[in-house]
Prephenate dehydratase
Amino acid sequence: MNLYYLGPKGTFSYLAAKQYSLEKEVIYSHCPQQNLYDVVKSVAENDDAIGIVPLENSIEGTINIIADSLIQQDVYAHGEIYVNIDFGLYANEGAQIEDITKVYSIAPAISQTIQYIHKHQFAYDYVDSTIQGLERISFTEAAIAPLGSGELYGFTPIDSHIQDYSLNITRFLVIKNHANFDKDGDNTILLISPKANKAGLLAKILNTFALFDINLSWIESRPMKQELGFYYFFVQTTTGKTKELDNVISILNNLNFKVKIIGVFNAYS
Amino acid sequence: MNLYYLGPKGTFSYLAAKQYSLEKEVIYSHCPQQNLYDVVKSVAENDDAIGIVPLENSIEGTINIIADSLIQQDVYAHGEIYVNIDFGLYANEGAQIEDITKVYSIAPAISQTIQYIHKHQFAYDYVDSTIQGLERISFTEAAIAPLGSGELYGFTPIDSHIQDYSLNITRFLVIKNHANFDKDGDNTILLISPKANKAGLLAKILNTFALFDINLSWIESRPMKQELGFYYFFVQTTTGKTKELDNVISILNNLNFKVKIIGVFNAYS
Amino acid sequence: MNLYYLGPKGTFSYLAAKQYSLEKEVIYSHCPQQNLYDVVKSVAENDDAIGIVPLENSIEGTINIIADSLIQQDVYAHGEIYVNIDFGLYANEGAQIEDITKVYSIAPAISQTIQYIHKHQFAYDYVDSTIQGLERISFTEAAIAPLGSGELYGFTPIDSHIQDYSLNITRFLVIKNHANFDKDGDNTILLISPKANKAGLLAKILNTFALFDINLSWIESRPMKQELGFYYFFVQTTTGKTKELDNVISILNNLNFKVKIIGVFNAYS
Amino acid sequence: MNLYYLGPKGTFSYLAAKQYSLEKEVIYSHCPQQNLYDVVKSVAENDDAIGIVPLENSIEGTINIIADSLIQQDVYAHGEIYVNIDFGLYANEGAQIEDITKVYSIAPAISQTIQYIHKHQFAYDYVDSTIQGLERISFTEAAIAPLGSGELYGFTPIDSHIQDYSLNITRFLVIKNHANFDKDGDNTILLISPKANKAGLLAKILNTFALFDINLSWIESRPMKQELGFYYFFVQTTTGKTKELDNVISILNNLNFKVKIIGVFNAYS
């Protein structure tokens, strides 16, 4: 079975994929991709593919490209993985922090170390992947990369745990191109699409869940890309596909929402 | 008075700033900045500064760096501006689309033309600004930039209206480092910060507004960066700072939320 | 067709029944009954019977015996009638108010003139019907009866409009022993019976109607007679049997309520 | 101290008053009154008076005259008492049920034994008090009275536990003409008066309590006696006068309700 993730070796996605393999005690063919779009597309197009994609980070919030992929592509969630996010500053051997004038990294890494970057008055530039950043290392240029990843390419961190917020966790989804709703699952992700725009839609959604005493652990909106102020809503319930959830879905249908079950699975623990 | 925005000339922020100047019939000293972080910081630190920052795009959703700035910096909203987003493909004179193999642009522009990019099988890379993209134009490389902006630098679009979604609008905020809540304002942006994490916080917030029949036009959550699943909430009401809104704020305080008024102003029309 | 009501001639029920006959332009066989229980029972047992029963008075509130009958008997509402309630003090010819020491009337009439009774320091006693009260008239004893009713038996009011609250209206229901839900009806009465007792049942009911934007003009609870604090709920909607109402009923069923449609009809105007 | 209740000896109110004296281990001067109106009025006018009044019966529901008294008179609840309601049929010695053709009792007692009365095809008539009923006992006429009460007057029940519903409980309030809100109380009765009539008032009230997670054990409406469909609301919370309750009251004030605290006390157990 093919395992797709945002590569190359050393990304947090790679670390999440490795963690997933270990838990499942299965050896997968690794298929690192150049961008998240390609990860989702590969999974959508291959029946024997598994994807590991970041849905939410405790600092950055929802990863929009993944949320939008769940809307646009025919993929389903089969589980979730939590990974601690720690960054290091990778440079040439012997380099001192004072020598560095510019850093390279992918956008989320820049964003999550921006205070560190500003404190050291580094210039910065975006690259598409961790390895591209490492490749740009020179005497005055460094790369910000997941702690532990630079070593895979022969670099040493000259500073570590440099993220702005010490507690930094990313929640990854395990996706496939077909649904398999776990009967014993204790978590459900739903995509709720209003058919018409009017005031109070989100309140109606939340009140419907409240009516059946179903708690929500994640609520996110994404633009419908038709007009400003018209949104899709994602919710994650702390309940599986129970009779109560079926009732909620049926009510939401009657309230003029389309509801797609993205996944029913056991919460990561 | 200094007008800060994400520069250089030709960005949508620049276009929004120009639109703002025209409406106010005031000539401002233009202070284009290299990134949004610097725009907000400059405004926060200067009493006679005005900033024009993108809050929400009809395709991309909320611009997280701006939402987070409203949380972290002491800036206030004094108005909003809507700008239509149209992209063009800028290249060397005489170039044909078939000649192009790679495009450069800033991340949001890449994101909003990604289907176009994939359709033409372009490689792509991120740059920090529109002008940086234009500077990389070569025989086989093009830049994606706001329609009308490339011309300022002597380039011609070889394709136009290339965004994936034809209807594409960005809502900008006008920010200053001090509050001046418009008594006749018909819109209020609030930042609502829970003091403790528990289930149903957003429902409580929405129900409090519903109690006083106040409609919300924008609801957004941003991570508190302390733990996964603990969020700040932004809401925008379609009402000014009325007695009812004061009541809502007082209730939210009693329900253990901190509430900051980000701005009271007239909705853009 | 037989028309049942609380008799004899001269009661407000009689006046309501007369009003109903006039509106329908039908001559019914009048079947006055001695008490409300017998009115409902007669209707329940006869297919060609119509009953006119008081559901709610603007001073007294809901008439419990009728609400309980709607729960216990198989009767349905086919319409409603509003009657102004005015009372007179009927006595022997030539009597002065100062001569009177005691008054007789039915319980609701006593209740609605109690301040008048106390002001004149009358003793009072209950009778089963208006006519029983009139029969007890003596030199020092008077009867409180609907204005206009005593004349039918040869008495004259020595005081009139003596009810404590000048604006006094009773809403009567038209009942039959079979349902005929008016397709064009704009009002629905529902009886909602919880299958289990727990906190917040009424809030759940009201929120379900609110979800579908259905307004309620009447909400009443009646004890289930099994334990203290366990109630049936009546609601009257300002909507007919629409798709939305069907949805509400289906949700209430799923929330473990039994729902009986008591009637769909046009509101009295 | 004077203890007021609906007399004479033998009524359930008397039994409740006796129960109250025993619990308090205080000997009160008994002041039985002829009707409930006089009980409340006596308490309202005397600073050293205590009243014991029935608020709610598990079969009959709320006792309207008491609910209305709490609205109209300046009395406050200081506690509650629960009394089991059992009725007996009192007749002349040696009488058989078959001999009886008519029964006398107060209206609530008739109501709560109406099926028994109908089963035996008794005629019935209302009296103002238990003792009045007992006084009418003749060879063919009997009295329905609280079990144990007739014996006080020398009568024997020829049938017992004759109420229609075997589980029959009345909740009495202990009232005084001044408030003394028990700091350790775990129950609060509130009277909530809308200042203007519009749709959804009760939902707003219930949602306000829900916002602060306060449960309600009793919800009752009583007509405002101004127009049909305009109600006072009583609620009883399962919480004392906490900070949360103060918040709820303040919100209800802002939502244009007047709120009077009728009492804070410990629930009867």
Summary: Chain B has a mean pLDDT of 93.
